[in-house]
Each structure stands twice: as structure tokens, then as C-alpha cells.
Amino acid sequence: MQELLAFLQDPELVARFQRRCGLYLAEGLTRDHDKTRPANGAPITGEKTLGHMDGSWDHQDGNINYRYKQDSVPVEIVMYIGQVMKDLLKLPRPPSPPVVKLETRVDAEYGLPSTHAMAATAISFTLLLSAPSRVQFCFQIGLLIAATTSSLVSLSRLYTGMHSVLDVVCGVLITAVLILLTYPYWESFDSFQLTSPLSPIIALSLLLFLSYTYPELDYYSTTRGDTTTILGVCAGCSVGYWVNAQLGHTFEPQGLLPVPLPTLTALSVARSAGRSLVGVATLVGTRQIVKKLSLDLLYSWYNVLKTDPNARRRKEIEVPSKFVTYTAVGLVNSILVNRLFVLLGLL
């Protein structure tokens, strides 16, 4: 077993896959890692690579909320467990060389498990398992789509050099176990989430508590902020679902369940594109407004200069700012956006 684990964690395995995809380290652009790596052995700054343009991608504030029915609990559980496991196990990402790193911003995070692989697997298979009771479709085709989506995202983590094969495999297996364990309780959770008066209180207080009690590291990592973002969106959406249920605005399909899949027409495609544009604009606007207001308030409360580049990394500022911002995003997504669609004739 140890030999198998060592083989799956071998960075050369990732490098060989990258070379198969036509990705190579540029000669003369490697550097001395020992001067820039944190305690986990992963470099903070990145090397230039062939085919890779300089720049940064701020994924920390770009999380997207996926939802089918109300069964978001498996995804929420999976993502939180995955993020916490990274900082408890403290297994480094594949080193460079031999691996080419294409996402240098998150290189200081630990590697196992791959939360991208976990999220893709959880979203795909949660949707697959939830859909048959509501929509008529060929389960075999749905299974193929779910497996393909999960596989492509997992392989992308090898291509970008962010994870070993072991990280990806463990991410998929952990998610599969969590889905199997929680699946019998999805309907019960759904009922509690939509009908119990305690639902919004528990959602907000529990998820905020989990954000504040995230494991501490001896250096700054984006994982705490990412986790707070995820939990904030989940809290906002959960409260929003509850509000919709109390108002009788649940947007249920018409007719006996499961309903047939709607016919794909030019009008339906145009409406879908319109919903995407309206939704993105609304959520981005909400994020920018609430983020600025929350940061300004926290800077004033803690008497911190706005020009301080490390201010946002402080726990007492990062956690409440992100949680409030993305709770607002979740609320707007689950309550306001659907009503805008109705008002604009996009449904």
C-alpha cells in the first residue's frame, strides 16, 4: 500500500501527463525554491512556463453557487471537509521542477485532497441523484455526463500542476463516501431547511462559527478565505430558500413529477443567455457593493489603514467581510434574481 501511495504522489507522474498534453518547463526559468517556499514546501511565487502568460487569477472571490432543488448540503459538507483536511494533513503540492505550475497564486496551499475534484464530483453526482424524482431523462446519459465532468475537472488539476494523482483520487473517493453517507437524509434535510423556523438561525450561526474556527496555520493561506466564501454563499442561499418557501415562491415545475425535459428552442436559448447576463451582473454588483461597505466598516472598527496590504488577511477582518459579502450574494441569488427573471420575462 505504501508503494502505491508513493507512486500516486510522485510528481514525475504529473509531469509526464503534462508533457503528454504538450506542456513543458521553459529552459533557464527555474529557480531556487528554498528561498520562497513556506512551511509546507510549496513555493509562493511562480515560475514562467511555456504557453503561460504573466498575470494573476483571483479565484478566491469568484466562487459560483450551484443548486438543484435544495440539495446543496452534500456540496457544502464536501467542500468544508476537503478544505479542512488540506490544512490538517499538510501534504505539499507537487514541486516544480519537474511539474509546471500554472496557478501560482494558490501554490502556498496544501494539496491533499483536491477540492476542485471534490466539488466537480459532488455537484455532478448530487445533480444526477436528485434529478430523477423531478425530471424525466435517460439516467445512463446523465451518468456519463456526470462522470465525464468529474474526470475532466480532475485531469485539469494535473494539467495545471496543482495536484498529484493521489490528491485527485482521494478527492473523488472522499466525495463518493460522503454522498453515499448523506444520500438517505437529503429529503429530511430538505424538509427541515424549508419549513423549520430554526433553519435560518442554524444556517447563519453554524456556518459563521465554522468560518471562525477554521484551523490556524503558521503562515497565511487563501484556504480560510475560500472556505468562508463557500460557507457564506451556502448560508445566504439556505436562508433564501427558507424565505421563498414561507412566501410560497418555490418556482416548482408545473405538472406531475417527474416532468419532461423542456424542448430546446432558439427562444429558450436566448432566455437562458439573458438569465446568465442578468444573474452575473446582479451578483457581481451585490458582491462589489457589500464587499466595499463591509471592509470600510471593519477598517474603521479596528482602526486599520485601508492602504495596509495585509489588513484583509487578518482573521477579524477577512472572515466577517467575506461571510457577510457572500451571504448577501447567496440571498440575492436565491430571492431576488428569480424575481428579476419573472419581471423581465426570462422564465
Brief summary:
By secondary structure, this protein is mostly helical.
List keywords for this structure.
347 residues; mainly alpha; two-stranded parallel ribbon; 11 helices; 2 strands; 59% helix
How do the helices and strands line up, and which of them pair or pack?
Blueprint: H1 2-9, H2 11-20, H3 73-89, H4 115-130, E1 135-136, H5 139-159, H6 165-182, H7 186-195, H8 199-212, H9 223-247, E2 259-260, H10 266-301, H11 315-343
Parallel strand pairs: 1-2
Helix pairs in contact: 3-4, 3-6, 3-9, 4-5, 4-6, 5-6, 8-9, 9-11, 10-11
Give a description of the structure.
With 347 residues, this protein is an all-alpha fold. It folds into 2 domains: 1-52 and 65-186, no CATH class; 196-252 and 261-347, no CATH class. The protein is built from 11 helices and 2 strands. The protein has helices at 2-9, 11-20, 73-89, 115-130, 139-159, 165-182, 186-195, 199-212, 223-247, 266-301, 315-343; strands spanning 135-136, 259-260. It has a two-stranded parallel ribbon with strand order 1-2. Helix 3 packs antiparallel against helix 9. It is globular and about 60 Å long. It starts with a helix and ends with a helix.
Low-confidence residue ranges: 29-71
Mean pLDDT: 83
SSE series: HHHHEHHHHHEHH
Tally of strands: 2
The major pleated sheet works out as: 2 strands, parallel
Q: Radius of gyration over alpha carbons?
A: 21 Å
Structural class: mainly alpha
Helical proportion? 55-70%
What is the terminal separation in angstroms? 53 Å
Overall tally of structural domains: 2
Strand content: under 5%
Strand order of the largest sheet: 1-2
**Shape type:** globular
